[in-house]
Amino acid sequence: MNISKDTNKIIINNPTHFDIMQILKSGQVFRYSQLQDNSYQLISSDKKCLLRKYQDRIEIITEHFDYFYDYFDLSTDYTKIIDTLNSQYGISSVTEYGRGIRILKQDIFETIISFIISANNNIPRIKGIIDRLCNALGKDCDNYKAFPTAEQIALANYDIIDNIGAGYRARYIYDTANMIYQGYELDSIKTMDTSKARKYLTALSGVGPKVADCILLFAYHKMDVFPVDTWIAKVYLDECGVCDSNKKMSNYLTHKYKNLSGYAQQYLFYYKRKSHN
DNA sequence: TACCAGGCTCCTT
DNA sequence: AAGGAGCATGGT
Q1: Closest Cα to residue A111, out of A147, A85, A83?
Q2: Element (DSSP H or E) covering residue A22
Q3: Residue A33 gets which letter from DSSP?
């Protein structure tokens, strides 16, 4: 697979580790929609790109080349990661099934709010809630809405947040946006070690250990985390034959997969949810 | 009708 | 530190 730049376009030839459907349906991102059979629109923060697939080529059409080059983690060698996972852990059927997945580097605030919404929720409904949040408060861009800023949510009438169908998460969204708008630092997390970063994030309303790990993985690209949801709990049950607390499962899996935990988690999650893909 | 979904907060031990 | 009740909403 090799990557080149054209006018307003990233081109990926022989995309062995870039599958549009797999990336979009791997449960890490929610603001996408299908335009045609081979074409998807993806919005991140206030930026848009179009994803198209041809025979042996993928095109990412965007005015923000650098942003989406980084966003799709295009400088990372996934062949090497998968080879290591296969040889050390024997999960080649899992990595083969999701070989087109990549771990995205998403906007920090958007990821925080999105995964607050994800708690005890299902993916189709998460998408709907985020859509309504963006339509209600997001800046009007060319033909689409940006994800609302912390300021826009914090200064909004609470009734608007309460009317997007988020249930009890509406209060968390509002409170967390207010904390961040008041100055809760998010950039300093980049240089924290993971356990300190997790503790720091869980001070936000609606952010527990699992949501914090998703934020660390999908926004800060920290790979020594292993978010445990109900699907990963099933994976753990298959392997260990018992149910344990989420904390115990996450510790076990992080210790096992070490600095490849984030990648392993995503391949295993995608594989376990096969029937939903 | 119940149970489930990328769990969290808050209250008890 | 660890465990459990309650929680909004919509899909199956």
Answers
A1: A147
A2: helix A20-24
A3: E
Catalytically annotated residue among A48, A53, A145, A210: A210
What is the token pair recorded at A124?
A: 């189709």
Name the residue with the least CA to C1' distance from nucleotide C3: A245
**What is the spatial distance between Cα A130 and Cα A148, in angstroms, rounded to a whole number?**
10
Q: State the CB neighbour count (10 A cutoff) for residue A248.
A: 14
Residue A277: predicted pLDDT: 82
pLDDT tens column, A238-250: 999 998 999 999 9
Chain segment A132-161, per-residue pLDDT in tens = 999 999 999 989 999 999 999 999 999 999
Nearest to A47 by CA among A177, A152, A138, A176: A138
At A6, is the secondary structure helix, strand, or coil?
A: strand
Average pLDDT rounded to a whole number, residues A42-56: 97
Find the length of chain A: 277
Catalytic-residue membership of A80: no
